[in-house]
Amino acid sequence: MEPERGLPPARPEHNIAMWGPPGSGKTTFLAALHIALNRRQDGWKVVGANGPSTDALIRLTGSLATQGHFPAATRGIERYRWYLVGAAERAKRFALRRRPPQDVRIGLDLLDPSGELFDQEHSGYAGVHGELVDNLVNSRGIVFLFDPVREFEDGDAFDYLHGVLSQLANRMLESPEFADGMLPHHVAVCITKFDEIRVMETAEKLRLVTVDPDDPLGFPKVEEEDARDLFRALCGVSATGNAELVHNTLIQYFRPERVRFFVTSAVGFYVDPRVGRFDRDDYQNLLPEAESSKAVRVRGTIHPINVVEPLLWLGRSLAAAHRAAPAARAAGTGR
Amino acid sequence: MIEPDEVRKAAAAAIADLSGERPLLVADLAAEGLVRWDLHRDAADTPRGRSRPVIPWDELATDDALLRAVRTPRPTGLLLVNTFPEGARGAAALDALRAAHPHAVAVSSDVRLGELLRDVIAHTPLTRWYDLVTLNPTPEGRLGLGTRQLFPVGARRGDSNPLAVDVEVADEHGTVLAVVASGKERRYSLVKKDAVRLAPGRYTLDAELRGPGRVRFRLPDADAAVVPDEREWEALVASVPDRMPPRVTAAHLVVAVEQGDGDERDADRLARAEQVVASAADDLRDRLRVSVLTYGPHAFERRAPDEPVAVRIWEGGAARALEALDAAAHSDPPPRGYPRAAALECALTEVARRLGPPGRDVRTAVLALGARPPFPPRVHPSEILPCPARNDWARALGTLRTYPGIAFGAIHDRPEEADDVWRQLGRDAPAPLAAVDARRLAASLGLAPAAAQRLPFPIGTP
User: Fold this and answer.
1) Which of B40, B84, B229, B283 has its CA 20 to 30 A from that of B423?
2) 3-class secondary structure for B151-168?
3) Are residue B171 and residue B137 in the same domain, yes or no?
4) pLDDT of A75 strictly over 70
5) Cβ A282–B385 below 8 Å, yes or no?
6) How far is the first Cα of chain B from the last one, in angstroms, to the nearest whole number?
């Protein structure tokens, strides 16, 4: 990775690692993040921490937003580092001492090995795992991408999750943060591809779909408190049947209050520009490239769903945890 | 020597006496020798005759040889004609034969006996009723052989009888015009049969009697040649179906051809459509109306024009429809568009919208050629995007099904992979693109009766 320029490094406790099986849409998620932040207009932005990461951000975002093309499958290993930068919080009204405003900055690491490398059990795989586990050790927030369509067809999420988590636990065995046998991370489990029929219909069958009356597009959504139920239901139709173990594994390693589920979509639902609102009869936002190919491109405008929210939740959670840590440490010292 | 008219009278009398039991032998004592003519009546009571090779006078030098030349195995009428009166040998032979057969009629005249006999036979009045073989449907729809009277007993050469006949689609040889003869006992014998290729419909059939066994047919309101029919009578009768097939007097064939799969596949489909149209036109001629639509996939790209259906011709003649198909084959290929479906739902909706009230006895057939599924009207588990116009193939097909007597056909690239809509479209006439029997497919669509339903004879019209 190139030396970081322009921005000082984020504190490790504010680092978030992107994690998910190959092909689960990590780079697409980040390309959509840029677009989602742009649509929110609330001061948050994503910034490359180095030249290649900035170039990748420009390339991925332009390809997805302008040409409707998804990022090509990763070849070899790609390492990106971005910052999610938010507006500075106002100083407290009665603060005794004025301090210069400081941006809120969350580091976002993405280690993206190609699928082939993960298929090699002992060569590149081990190396990739090592680097990935380093990433996770140095983070306190994890975005775990769960692709239910891929899980329905391949069913390999558990294999991937289980191996990495075992190594992560092993590496953190000596850490005081692992004292209660639980990893210290906050995990945002992102159920991707909400815009696809099988996911949407599963949510509808479970009566988990709601519509925010204030949403000008009228998009359906699954509230955070219902997302876990959808996750379990989608795990139930895994190709291997192992996906049910994914949920249990997450609960086994992470504190339940630090795991949150989000139902997401990088491209969102299709919105007919003549109508301007979600249409239950016509919401697919992907176009196949060829009759017998799995390749797709984006059909209409991109309206990412729940792409920013997991990161902001992680950011806020990590900040809260960081604030609480000195007090905890102090309490520990006084004992 | 007597006049030729006397010979004619003698010949006419002798031929009038012909019967199945009593044939006639005519001995022509000519310049070069004796020519023997054997005449008889066939099963239809038509006088038939043939001459045998001439026996030179040198071989008839003795009376015994002369008598042997006119000997017959059974009782026979005998007419002796010396056609070379100037010759001594002929006169001597005539005397000798007359002496041996005192009841024989003997005449001398310089005539061409063969021509005279043919002429006499042609002018012989009918001794049987002559009828045209028809098919008579019962009120229940069953079919049986019947007859229409052409000429009564006693009718002569030159008599004519125009009659109206209804013709249905026959096989490739055409409709058979068969004449049968019958006597008092109403047992029919085949006199002759011709064939003529006609489009289904009603025609005036002019029958002119040219003599016993000779009936000439003309169809003044049809440009069609009447030719002798060489088929076996038994096979023709056996080909008559038990029941009257649905009446097809006119038809409207709607052809919807999928395009957008590349030049070769597109061209194959258009070529198959041409074959079916041409085949249907063979049978129905100008009673066939044809509509041609081509359709491709919808375009979902931003700002891309979405016009997947082109109506190339609507209810035009077959010739113009074939031109339209040819023009489609030579036009620019349609945009590739969405790869996994084609706007079959829009094509069917357009057909349902355009079809007017059904005409009486007009068969309507919809033939689709393609392979891709239609676009669903809304989000569908197939993940094919919905039709932008929200057209619903099932609804369009349901509307078309209410059309009286409509038939559906489908020529699919790979019938084993056909989905529900293609199976429904192929209800009456399914076929694979690689092997289409256009004639059979047209018949299955009711545009021409199937082989088992073809009617070889005219319908008996009162």
Assistant:
1) B283
2) ECCCCCCCCEEEEEEEEC
3) yes
4) no
5) yes
6) 54
Per-residue confidence (pLDDT) for residue A278, from 0 to 100: 95
Same domain, B99 and B144: no
Share of residues in chain A with pLDDT > 90 (%): 25
Structural domain of B89: 4-122
Q: How far is CA B319 from CA A109, B362, B438, in A?
A: 70, 19, 17
Asked whether residue B182 falls in the same domain as residue B265, the answer is: no
CA neighbor of B351 nearest in space, from B370, B364, B332: B364
Chain A residues touching residue B338 (CB < 8 angstroms): 287-288
User: Do residue B211 and residue B289 come from a single domain?
Assistant: no
Of B301, B339, B379, the CB nearest to A281: B379
Check whether residue B17 and residue B84 sit in a common domain.
yes
Q: Is residue A6 part of a domain?
A: no
Model ipTM? 0.81
Provide the 8-state DSSP code for A256. Answer: G
Average pLDDT score over residue span B3-26: 86
Q: Can you list the positions of beta strands (E) in B67-213?
A: 77-82, 105-108, 129-137, 143-151, 160-167, 175-182, 188-196, 201-211
pLDDT in the model for residue B234: 92
Residues of chain A found within 8 Å of residue B339, distances taken between Cβ atoms: 288-291
Query: What is the distance between the alpha carbons of residues A227 and A210, in angstroms, rounded to a whole number?
Result: 12
Q: How far is CA A243 from CA A222, A236, B157, in A?
A: 20, 7, 98
Query: In this complex, which of B301, B377, B379 lies closest to A284 when CB atoms are compared?
Result: B379
Contact pairs from chain A to chain B, CB under 8 Å? 35
With beta carbons less than 8 A apart as the criterion, state whether B401 and B371 touch.
no
Terminal CA-to-CA distance of chain A, rounded, Å?
Answer: 43
CA distance B427 to B406: 11
| Domain membership of residue A47 as a residue range | 12-89+101-324
Q: Indicate if the pLDDT at residue A124 is higher than 50.
A: no
Interface residue A269 vs chain B (CB under 8 A): no
B340 contacts in chain A (CB < 8 Å): 288, 291
Residues 6+ away with beta carbon under 8 Å from A193:
A25, A147, A148, A149, A199, A265
Question: Is B219:B204 a contact under the CB 8 Å cutoff?
Answer: yes
Q: Which amino acid is at B269?
A: R
Question: What are A135-177's pLDDT values in tens digits?
Answer: 888 888 899 998 888 877 776 777 777 777 888 888 877 777 7
How far apart are alpha carbons B340 and B425 in whole angstroms? Answer: 19
Q: How many domains does chain A have?
A: 1
Pull the structure tokens for residue B30.
């000519």
Which of B122, B157, B188 represents a domain boundary (last residue)?
B122
Task: Give the contacts of B160 (CB within 8 A, at least 6 positions apart).
Answer: B206, B207, B208, B209
Show Cβ contacts of residue A155 under 8 Å, excluding neighbours closer than 6 positions: A238, A239, A240, A241, A242, A243
